[in-house]
């Protein structure tokens, strides 16, 4: 699986690292390893992405199809916002589903919002070219953009893991796996 | 020349005897030229008396003393019984009283029952002088003025009551004076006071003047006079958000237009009763309309926001473009506050070079407004000497329309940018040559994430007119852009293959 190109000099921070803070949620909805990464901009807008440990981003996985139709009555593609205050946006809770990813091996994964707020937009490019999701999960392959309420902008990260905490979780998992194998 | 004629006699008699002042009497007799109103009060009263005391069976009123400038409570208390007698009679027919002293007190109306003193002491020279003193003390520089006055709403109610009374009386004589022939209180007041202001302050009265002197009257004693209207026309008195009282002049006028005569007369005495005191002066204020200063600014700092950067009460970065320019203007124009606007803006960490960005500053309520071009030049120099983060040029006084023109620039002009580009991948000169050939590139820009929290989500089509490159080394080159206004200049991507 292609990862994002490494920087020419390791000291040059990426666009993501310059403007966003990474927050993580592990084992979303109790499903093992379905980790999400929330990129929080300094203006409180959150970009929902898959963390690198997510099954969909692992070697050998092929995405067959992605759908934003999360229920009979609700498609994230129908989301329309207007004005400065983004009226009309679909409101999301932490567990609200954003999209469903269907893989060629028959596995099905649901991506959740992880933060409360108004849905700004979902990434339509991954519908046409699902491989972008795997190639550039933190930039062009993002899932959705969410605008949390102003009052909640600080509290939304309370239930999330920092980069460091997430890395510890991943290490623990690997140790557990090696222990059992 | 005495303005009243024979046919006005009954109305004038009726009004005078029920406590109405001479000037209001003139108004209700349709006297629509200025001169009579400007005569001194005593003279008006004397002339009126003379005019009225011709027939035998009319009550002969003694020539009363002119009302004292400050109504003393005792005198009023003495006269109250008599006055009450009058108002109870409704129609105000005075019974002949043998004891002339009470009659003279009755007829010597202290406070006019219609204008509550507005056309008595409040239009005379002494009061105007008092207002002018305040105007002069306020420290404003002005070459003309517009005078605005505000009366308590209950005056409209009294005016209406007096009108109904007069209409009834004229009906008896089949006179044809219509409501529109009655001179408005405010109009008569301005006829008298405007020349006095002009003379005292030495400037002309001009409706278009930016300098406004405003006087607000109130009459606390009769504040509840309007309240009965709410019961009869409740939909005229809906509480609006920012208003203290629901009984505004507009609302009261609306209700008075709606209410039926019988209903009005049941609730409010016609003629109106005589109050104990004259109006109070709630406020005398002066204000000058905003003036506008425009120019262009250059920004040489990469650490300066355009407007103060304050989050949760804490200032994040010292100063701002607008403060560095406006603080000096605020001081020199002695203004209350300012509004800074510019034709577009740049980020904190971006410099503004070249001729500079057009800006305009609205100075609110300036006390000083006249400056020679030399003084403006000196002001510009002062601003430029005080900071090396910004520089100002072409500083000048402009009209309000100038802001509109400047904002057009924000939408319609072309903007030029330059940036130093770093590339991850190593590049050669030939790799970026192609950029120079791109002309009028159309791009569709979605609102960038970094401003999405405060801008609507939208797609905007913009044009990049031209680009020019200047190779520096394998990882750097200068890029010059000319774009359409409203473009996010570095929010687009071109693959360099």
What can be said about this structure in brief?
Chain A is 18% helix and 27% strand. Chain A has 181 residues and is an alpha+beta fold.
The top level CATH class name of chain A? Mainly Beta
Reported for the largest beta sheet of chain B, the result is: 4 strands, antiparallel
State the major sheet of chain A.
Answer: 7 strands, antiparallel
Largest beta sheet of chain A: what is the strand line-up? 5-8-9-3-2-1-10
Main location (chain A): other
Subcellular location (chain A): Cell projection, Dendrite; Cell projection, Growth cone; Cell projection, Lamellipodium; Nucleus speckle
Family (chain A): Belongs to the ABITRAM family.
Keywords (chain A): Cell projection, Nucleus
Describe the overall structure.
Chain A is of the alpha+beta class. Chain A has a single domain (17-170), classed as Beta Barrel (OB fold (Dihydrolipoamide Acetyltransferase, E2P)), CATH 2.40.50. Helices cover 18% and strands 27% of the residues of chain A. Chain A is built from four helices and ten strands. In chain A, strands 5-8-9-3-2-1-10 form a seven-stranded antiparallel beta sheet. Chain A has a three-stranded antiparallel beta sheet with strand order 4-6-7, with no helix packed on it. In chain A, 33% of the residues are buried. With 497 residues, chain B is α+β, with helices and mostly antiparallel strands. Chain B is built from 17 helices and 13 strands. Chain B has helices at residues 9-17, 22-28, 35-38, 41-52, 73-88, 100-107, 125-137, 154-173, 185-201, 227-232, 249-258, 261-267, 321-333, 373-386, 401-412, 429-436, 449-452, and strands at residues 146-150, 211-218, 280-288, 291-299, 310-311, 314-315, 337-342, 352-364, 390-398, 414-422, 439-446, 459-473, 476-484. In chain B, the strands form four sheets. Chain B has a four-stranded antiparallel beta sheet, sandwiched between helices. In chain B, a hairpin with a 2-residue loop joins β5 and β6. In chain B, α1 (9-17) runs antiparallel to α2 (22-28), α8 (154-173) packs parallel to α11 and α13 (321-333) packs across α14. Chain B is elongated. Chain B starts with 8 loop residues before the first helix and ends in a 13-residue tail after the last strand. The relative contact order of chain B is 0.09. Chain A binds chain B through residues 5, 7-8, 12, 19, 41, 43-45, 47, 81-84, 86, 120-121, 145, 147, and chain B through 424-426, 449-457, 475.
């Amino acid at each position: 699986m292609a990862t994002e190109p490494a920087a020419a000099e390791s000291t040059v921070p990426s666009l993501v690292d310059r403007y966003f803070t990474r927050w993580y949620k592990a084992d979303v909805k109790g499903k093992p390893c379905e980790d999400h990464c929330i990129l929080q901009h300094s203006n409180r807008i959150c970009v929902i992405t898959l963390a690198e440990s997510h099954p969909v981003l692992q070697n050998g996985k092929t995405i067959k199809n992605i759908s934003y139709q999360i229920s009979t009555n609700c498609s994230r593609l129908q989301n329309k916002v207007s004005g400065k205050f983004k009226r009309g946006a679909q409101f999301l809770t932490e567990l609200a589903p954003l999209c469903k990813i269907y893989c060629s091996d028959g596995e099905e994964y649901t991506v959740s919002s992880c933060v409360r707020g108004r849905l700004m937009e979902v990434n339509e490019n991954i519908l046409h070219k699902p491989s972008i999701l795997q190639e550039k999960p933190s930039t062009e392959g993002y899932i959705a953009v969410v605008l949390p309420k102003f009052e909640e902008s600080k509290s939304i990260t309370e239930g999330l893991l920092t980069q460091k905490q997430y890395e510890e979780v991943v290490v623990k998992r690997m140790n557990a796996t090696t222990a059992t194998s | 020349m005495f303005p009243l004629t024979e046919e006005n006699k009954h109305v004038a008699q009726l009004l005078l005897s029920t406590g109405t002042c001479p000037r209001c009497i003139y108004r209700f007799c349709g006297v629509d030229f200025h001169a009579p109103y400007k005569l001194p009060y005593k003279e008006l009263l004397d002339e009126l008396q003379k005019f009225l005391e011709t027939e035998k069976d009319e009550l002969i009123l003694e020539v009363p003393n002119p009302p004292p400038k400050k109504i003393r409570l005792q005198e009023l208390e003495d006269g109250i019984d008599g006055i009450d007698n009058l108002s109870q009679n409704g129609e105000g027919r005075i019974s002949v009283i043998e004891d002339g002293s009470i009659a003279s007190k009755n007829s010597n109306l202290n406070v006019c029952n219609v204008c509550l003193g507005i056309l008595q002491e409040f239009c005379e020279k002494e009061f105007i002088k008092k207002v002018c003193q305040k105007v002069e003390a306020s420290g404003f520089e002005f070459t003309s003025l517009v005078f605005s006055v505000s009366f308590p709403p209950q005056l409209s109610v009294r005016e209406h009551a007096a009108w109904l009374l007069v209409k009834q009386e004229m009906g008896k004589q089949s006179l044809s004076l219509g409501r529109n022939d009655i001179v408005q209180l405010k109009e008569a007041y301005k006829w008298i006071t405007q020349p006095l202001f002009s003379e005292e302050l030495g400037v002309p009265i001009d409706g278009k003047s930016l300098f406004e002197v405003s006087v607000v009257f109130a009459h606390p004693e009769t504040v509840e006079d309007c309240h009965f209207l709410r019961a009869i026309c409740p939909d005229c008195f809906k509480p609006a958000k920012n208003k203290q009282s629901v009984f505004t002049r507009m609302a009261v006028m609306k209700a008075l237009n709606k209410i039926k005569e019988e209903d009005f007369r049941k609730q409010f005495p016609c003629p109106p009763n005589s109050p104990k005191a004259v109006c109070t002066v709630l406020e005398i204020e002066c204000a000058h309309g905003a003036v506008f200063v425009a120019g262009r600014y250059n920004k040489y700092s990469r650490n300066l926001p355009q407007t103060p950067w304050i989050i949760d009460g804490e200032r994040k970065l010292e100063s701002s473009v607008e403060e560095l320019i406006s603080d000096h203007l605020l001081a020199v124009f002695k203004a209350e506050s300012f509004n800074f606007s510019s034709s577009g803006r740049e980020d904190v960490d971006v410099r503004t070079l070249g001729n500079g960005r057009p800006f305009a500053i609205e100075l609110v309520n300036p006390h000083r407004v006249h400056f020679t071009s030399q003084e403006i030049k000196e002001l510009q120099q002062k601003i430029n000497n005080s900071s090396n983060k910004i520089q100002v040029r072409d500083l000048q006084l402009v009209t309000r329309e100038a802001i509109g023109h400047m904002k057009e620039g924000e939408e319609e002009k072309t903007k030029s940018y330059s940036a130093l580009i770093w590339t991850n991948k190593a590049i050669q000169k030939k790799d970026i040559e192609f950029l120079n050939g791109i002309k009028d590139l159309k791009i569709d820009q979605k609102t960038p994430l970094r401003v999405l929290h405060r801008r609507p989500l939208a797609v905007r089509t913009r044009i990049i007119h031209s680009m020019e490159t200047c190779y520096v080394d394998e990882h750097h080159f200068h890029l010059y852009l000319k774009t359409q206004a409203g473009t996010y200049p570095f929010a687009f991507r071109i693959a360099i293959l």
